[in-house]
Amino acid sequence: MTDQRHSTSEILPGLEPAALARPGTALRGRIHLVGIGGIGMSGIAEVLITLGYRISGSDLRASEATRRLADLGAEIHIGHDAAHVGADADVVVVSSAIDDANPEVREARRLRIPVIARAEMLAELMRMKCAVAVAGAHGKTTTTSLIADVLGRAGFDPTIVLGGRLRALGGTNARLGRSRYMVAEADESDGSFLLLKPTLAVVTNVDREHMNTYGSMERLIDAYVSFVNGIPFYGRAF
Fold first, then answer.
1. Which domains are present in the chain?
2. Which entry of 8, 141, 204, 213 is annotated as an active-site residue?
């Protein structure tokens, strides 16, 4: 049987494999995630834990996701309270469900700790990788899972951040791969996917959704165009 595996340079000329690097190497303290039990936040938290960061987080209720993260070593708090932040936090990451009135957000700002969106932390992880980001109204999780599975079977061992749990990952929604490849969903619901700068962008489809964010179909389409235009000159859009 012929070996069908290819090197990264054959797929993307000029891009060679690199050793896994920790993002944000200036961070020495703790990363705190508000809304850590959410499907998108928990995936990022799991990758950060595997990279060796100290992780804490809070959510309104305990869940399978918070229990898994606690088992992996995260400091989990149920409920939101200013005391959960602490002066040793380097950054506070918030999900789209968290507003400025949240006591942990207010405490972080009082302590002059940076408060960033989930997508900004995902973008930082992507910055260290040759990243594939999948956007679209429907089919994001399925398409992301298929791309990740193909890359895995081809021997590329990608880092994966999904918007759903995958049986092949042991029922979780994230894993840290050993290659420079990463596959992740890009959430267009609040416009934060424009923070992402992947090497490869996939748009499954566009539908009249999230009008509370965009106001019109024209502005929604413009956002997708901006997302695709954000890829580097050596990237590709599909």
1. 30-116 (3.40.50.720), 128-237 (3.40.1190.10)
2. 141
